[in-house]
Amino acid sequence: MELAAGSFSGEQFREACAELQQPALAGADWQLLVETSGISIYRLLDQKTGLYEYKVFGVLEDCSPTLLADVYMDLDYRKQWDQYVKELYEQECNGQTVVYWEVKYPFPMSNRDYVYLRQRRDLDMEGRKIHVVLAQSTSVPQLVERSGVIRVKQYKQSLAIESDGKKGSKVFMYYFDNPGGQIPSWLINWAAKNQSRTKQEAQNQRDLIQFSANPNTLQ
């Protein structure tokens, strides 16, 4: 699932936009996991890995689309509230901006790290202003694997945000990663489901961003 050098295609951005208007849940066994506080989370079993893909739909009241997109892109702010971040920064590699992210895992498990491309576009879709952020794992020679840290090589995320017509934001998010190592898939899936229950207390944009950060983070 690694992305080759280069940027995301226009079609990938359009697909994320389309999910805002018409969620693509038909034709696959997407299961409703949580539905509360205006947020619905669905999951789909990936047969190859035994792990779940996630889709999130909903409305975040009193948070504008531009603010939500800006906060989502702000890595420095992320380090203030995400207790699992050990290291997080952007680096120019071969003419493109790559994100390096190391995630703390509890002892005795090894930390995981990610190297991924991330791109934001603010689109005008027939008069609808939509902010779209795409991210996917990649590999670059400047960021080699570290001893004692397991590199996550299957990571993909998309986020689309537009106005709800009032003061809030209508949101779509897709997420999948495979943390690798020797963690049983049932344990990863249980942890993801357990963390998603915190959506019952979701009241602001940080809650959604925290879920998008890594629903597989063990607590």
TrEMBL record:
Signal sequence extent: none
Domain called START: residue spans: 30-189
GO CC annotation, single: cytosol
PROSITE patterns documented for this protein: START
Acetylation among keywords: yes
Region (Disordered): 199-219
Predominant place of localization: cytoplasm
Subcellular location: Cytoplasm
One function term, GO molecular function aspect: phosphatidylcholine binding
Matches recorded under Pfam families: START (PF01852)
InterPro entries linked: START-like_dom_sf, START_lipid-bd_dom, START_lipid_transfer
Assigned keywords, A-Z: Acetylation, Cytoplasm, Lipid transport, Lipid-binding, Phosphoprotein, Transport
SMART domains, per database record: START
Subunit structure and binding partners: Interacts with ACOT13/THEM2.
Record protein name field: Phosphatidylcholine transfer protein
Lineage: Eukaryota, Metazoa, Chordata, Craniata, Vertebrata
Recorded name of the encoding gene: PCTP
